[in-house]
Each structure stands twice: as structure tokens, then as C-alpha cells.
Design goal:
CATH topology of chain A: 434 Repressor (Amino-terminal Domain)
Oligomer: heterodimer
Helix content of chain A: 55-70%
Strand content of chain B: under 5%
CATH superfamily of chain A: lambda repressor-like DNA-binding domains
CATH architecture of chain A: Orthogonal Bundle
Number of domains of chain A: 1
Radius of gyration of chain A: 11 Å
Shape of chain A: globular
Radius of gyration of chain B: 19 Å
Order of helices and strands of chain A: EHHHHHE
Strand content of chain A: 5-15%
Largest sheet of chain A: 2 strands, antiparallel
Structural class of chain A: mainly alpha
CATH class of chain A: Mainly Alpha
Number of helices of chain A: 5
Structural class of chain B: mainly alpha
Number of helices of chain B: 5
Number of domains of chain B: 2
Helix content of chain B: over 70%
Distance between the termini of chain A: 12 Å
Largest sheet of chain B: none
Strand order of the largest sheet of chain A: 1-2
Number of strands of chain A: 2
Distance between the termini of chain B: 6 Å
Number of strands of chain B: 0
Chain lengths: 69, 144
């Protein structure tokens, strides 16, 4: 699964630690999700959706689809 | 050039690290203290109170179990997966090390207490190394 977290985070000028604070997770978790090494659970995905004020389907994409596919 | 990863820990990182330190410190201090006492043969640990001092190692051992359970409960979802995988690797290493120790003892090779201690410490180190490897942050920013 791919995602736009890094792009959305950069647009807000947040560091990984800033986003981790907002999601109540570790920096490693944010890094692993951004780099595609870990797919978040549905509750965490909803939390990200709330933090970025965007719909989940605009944050995450199957590997073969998405804005750059 | 790759951008360096930021050093600042998140608030949850800080809280978890602090709590883990206090969970693990008594157990590690207890194990080190008991190892030193056993090695020096102090307080009757190599004589009349040998059984007592040997069984006393169960106390920090149980404290480690408590620390691991608390750490797993405190971890976020990604850290929990990483911790469980690292635990599995450490546990597998310990089983094989203890099995090998048993075979060596049956062959009359080595000193049992030292080999068990080495097996235990090596397994712990492999467990920690596996966890560090699993949770290493990588930077995939495009080169500029």
C-alpha cells in the first residue's frame, strides 16, 4: 500500500516527531508507514485522516493505483 | 545528498523510554548483583546457601517478564509487532543455546553456570539487536 503522508506532512511543515505527537505513536512508526514498511491499522488510519482533515481514500492507495500510478 | 533524520523524540517516545528504563533497571541491577555474588562466592553462594542464591535469580527473571509485558502493552501497533518479532528471535536463540549447553554438558565440556549465563546474555543482546534493526528509521527522501 502507498500513501501521501510524507507529502501532506511536508506541506504542513511538520517533522515526523510532530506527526507522531499528534497521532500518539513513535517516530519509528511514522517513518515505517511513510516508507511503506508498515501498513497502519484502521483505527490509526482514521486518526491520520482526522489529523490531516482528509478522507482515508485520499491518504492511502493500493500499490497499483494512486495519484502517481 | 540525503537529509539527516531529526533527533527530536516524540512525546510518546519519551514517555515510553522513561517508563521502560524504570521497568528494566531493577531487574538488570538484580541480575548483575546476583552474578557478581555468585562469581565471588560471597555470602555462602558457593557453599551452604548455594540453592538459595541460585533460586534467587528467579526474582529478577520474573521482573523481566513483568517489564516485557508492560512494554508490549505500552507500545504502539508497529512497535508491538517489531517487539514480538524480536522476542521470537531472542527466544529461538535462547532455546538453541540452552540445548547446545545441555549437549556440551553431557559431553563433559564447559562450566554449566557460565554457559547458561552466556546463553542468557547473548540471547538478550540478540533480542535487543533484532529490535533495533526492526525499528531503525530510514530516510527515503530523493537525492537533491
Amino acid at each position: 500500500m502507498r500513501n501521501r503522508l510524507r507529502e501532506l506532512r511536508a506541506a504542513r511543515r511538520w517533522s515526523q516527531a510532530d506527526l507522531a505527537d499528534r497521532l500518539d505513536v513513535s517516530r519509528q512508526t511514522v517513518n515505517a508507514i511513510e516508507t511503506g514498511r508498515y501498513d497502519p491499522s484502521l483505527p490509526l488510519a482514521f486518526k491520520m485522516s482526522a489529523v490531516f482533515e482528509d478522507r482515508i481514500e485520499n491518504l492511502f492507495f493500493p500499490s497499483d493505483t494512486g495519484p502517481e500510478a | 545528498m540525503r537529509r539527516s533524520l531529526e533527533k527530536r523524540a516524540s512525546q510518546s517516545d519519551k514517555i515510553r523510554s522513561r517508563a521502560q528504563l524504570w521497568d528494566w533497571l531493577p531487574a538488570i541491577a538484580g541480575l548483575v548483583m546476583l552474578s557478581v555474588i555468585s562469581e565471588l562466592g560471597a555470602f555462602g553462594s558457593d557453599d551452604s546457601l548455594k540453592l538459595f542464591w541460585s533460586l534467587l535469580n528467579l526474582a529478577p527473571g520474573l521482573w523481566i517478564v513483568r517489564a516485557v509485558v508492560r512494554s508490549l502493552r505500552r507500545a504502539d501497533e508497529y512497535q508491538r509487532v517489531a517487539q514480538l518479532e524480536a522476542l521470537a528471535i531472542g527466544f529461538g536463540t535462547l532455546i538453541m543455546a540452552i540445548y547446545t549447553t545441555g549437549l556440551l554438558q553431557a559431553g563433559g565440556v564447559g562450566h554449566l553456570r557460565q554457559m547458561v549465563q552466556i546463553s542468557f546474555i547473548a540471547s538478550m543482546l540478540i533480542w535487543i539487536a533484532a529490535l533495533m534493526f526492526k525499528t531503525t528509521r530510514i530516510d527515503e527522501e530523493p537525492a537533491t
